[in-house]
Amino acid sequence: MRKACKVMIWFVLVLFILLSDKRLNSFEVPKEPILCTETGMHTAPIYRIAIDAQNQFLVTGSIDKTVRVWELSTGRPLKILRPPIEKGLAGRILAVAITPDGKTIACAGRTGFAWEKSQSIYLFDRESGRLVHRIKNLPDVSIYHLIYSKDSRFLVATLGEGKGIRIYRTADYSIVGEDKDYGNHVYAADFDPNGRLITGSHDGLIRLYGGDFKLIMKKKAPGGNKPSAVSFSPDGSNIVVGFGDSSKVDVLSGRDLSYQYSPDTSGVAKGGFISVCWSSDGEFLYAGKTWSPVFIRKWSKEGKRGWGWGNGYKDLPVGDYDINHILPRKEGGVIFCSSHPAFWVFDENDKKTIYKNPSIAEYRGSYKEFLISQDGNTIQFGYEILGQSPARFSISERSLKVDSPKEKTLSPPMTTAPGLNITDWEYSYNPKLNGKLLIPSRNESSYCLAISPDKNAFLIGTSIFIHLYDREGNQKWQSLPPSYVYSVNISGNGRVAAAALGDGTLRWYRIKDGQELLAFFPHADKKRWILWTPSGYYDASPGAEELIGWHVNNGNEEAADFFPVSRFRGTCYRPDIIAKTLETLDEAEAIKLANKKSGKKVEELPVAKILPPVVSILSPKDGLEVSEKEIEVKFEVRSPSGEPVTNVKVLVDGRPVEKSSAIIEIQKDQGIRTTRVAISERDSEISIIAENRHAASEPATVKLRWSGKVKEDEFTIKPKLYVLAIGVSKYEDKSLTLGFAAKDAQDFAESLLKQKGGLYRDVVVKVLTDEKATKDEIIDGLDWISKETTSKDVAIVFLAGHGINDSGGVYYYLPVNANMDKLRRTGVPFTEVKNTVASLAGKTILFIDTCYAGNIMGARAVAADITRIVNELASAENGAVVFASSTGKQYSFENTDWENGAFTKAVVEGINGKADYIGKGRITINMLDLYVSERVKELTKGKQTPATAKPQTIPDFPLVLKR
Q: Tell me, what's the pLDDT at 668?
């Protein structure tokens, strides 16, 4: 008895502890940071969009787990909303809605967690981006559609797997109605102006509800068995229905669901219309077709036969991807989204006014062109569908070569082998081995196959997993990648698998157990790329550090934070670890070997402990029109890591404001501060950056539109241009002698002197070459340009000569009197350049050509990690536009025929007018970047690839006039 009593007491005590544990009881979402790509656009299909009544805002939701808010008139990105997520499926967004007044955004999809066994709807304040409410305890099935009533009083959610619909009152988001009597997924719903509700379900039925949400009637639409889209006409008199299993479109009565007519869908051989809508005036019908060819069919006169165009309709071509959702514009025309992912805006004349395409490579149908080397170190892929626009990437060389021909050392995936009769694996739900079904799931589609070199195993990539099977069809492992798997391949040595995914990434896996080793993202601009390990150590090309980052959940009831990996450059930028990961097939071992060689000791990446601050601008609002030259800015600073904020920077158009701008802390306990900022009489961007001892925050930015008028007789002063050009060819140490570095600096400075009287009222140049370019003179030159440049001016620094890293990784520019044995005392450390850049008040541009080696004829070999330098200088907190002569382990070439380096020759040609592609007489930063990039590749026959990096806070601007 006593023993039983003790057991009972122990049980009660344990239960009490469990119930008292706040973490367990509150079911907190994962706190560990999660690596994600971030390109400024979705990287996975957009299934739903939403717009407010005034058509000011467009909301897009994607299975990439983000919701994005856009300015509808321009397509300008305004906000990224990040609900809590997990690795795997949790967090995928399938549905979005916005209140008619544009104030609140709802999103849902696979927005539940395994331990909750339910789904959630997240509600965000559109202006601030804050998560303001969570509707909990929905059934544990996908939420496919959300829609607000026209008067904003109600929100409807449609569910999968026969779970029906739920209706919520927006005053408190309490449930006021539901209908669970459904036999399949509910993909569609719409409100009419009087509050009636229509739904379409794959159980074949259309249901009509009254304003009290009681079911009025349900009927089967004659056109198909899977109604996937429904839309009321503007006056509610009719309903249009599209189907997922039929090419028909039906128009039903909005009063009693009786069949009225079917618009002409002739010529549609296969595919359905899973998105439909009426025009805002009810005159036209639109429907988006699935399957190739994809188009939007537009019918005149409500789609009634015999009206309007010759056959009553016209087809609007939109590409090769399913149109998932169409909405009418208030002024006429439509907005729609696709699986690519992309969105379009067409006006009332069917003219495309906005097209926002993704920044990812497209790997569909390209498995034959997905090549891999014997050791897995090099892969070839295509940026475009079917393997078009080929490129080759080498991990060891840190090089991306675009438009690369096939190499004999690279092999395509093996898809046939004796004794392995693998069938139905390409775009099929039924892949088989010798007639045996391999994947018994109708929810998982197979896309690609690769047989191992020894023919004893094979990979199948699907819409969900990568599977490895043995010769008998036994699954050895499966790995869950973040997106569809369009191509797979296995290295010749059989140790590594590679996969091309729908999110634009390429990934390497250990064949032994399916462990991911590396991930690679090549941006669609065909210049930028980033390569990383699962723990977050990375290598990147110039300007590419913002392409991935850490998603950090803040619990169930708050929006997550996102930090680009650039915020952790000092710890995470480790090309040495990347280089050894594929060699060792083990990230932990690669870290140990790289640390041993470099003398570093970090073995575990403590991201959560070194998070930078987070800044939010509370006022003024983004897009506000102003007429005052001094603006009060109110902002909030949070510190997720708990580290105190050590500094706050205020920038206008990407450059620091005058130091006299005081920052006043007005609510210390909430981190709210205010400052007054002077702006010019033009459109401006104000940015706030906060720092702690570890890193600087992402800039919080608002764009202000100038509405005031400048007096006609007011004299506008042009800026001055200050140029510091440094080049060393004839070093005191004869072994360092170069050919044209000094001449490069002189020619560069002379090209800019011609700009006096153009964009600039004056051009002031200081040139330091050869014997004049001592350490003291260079530091004095940096001090000179820092002191002379005002906020209205432009500063340019040009460096040509040797650059080198010491044993500790510190970069030095070598002056004429450099001593390789006494670098600290005789070299110019990178900190001198960085501090100068950060202190310059005006726009700042650097041209860096320090990739030289005197012992290589005709080439300047990379002696330092220039990529890290470029990315650091071009970060928002330093704010420089940086042009670099080459990337990776490339040489920077020079030629006696040019009497210049290839980079300087291209820059000077561009400045002198050849970069004026559009003939307007002004050459902008982006135009010069394009010219230099193409010209250097032409001069060096593709052996040298220059790079440009520009802070996100600085828009493109004119640099010179064509002279």
A: 64
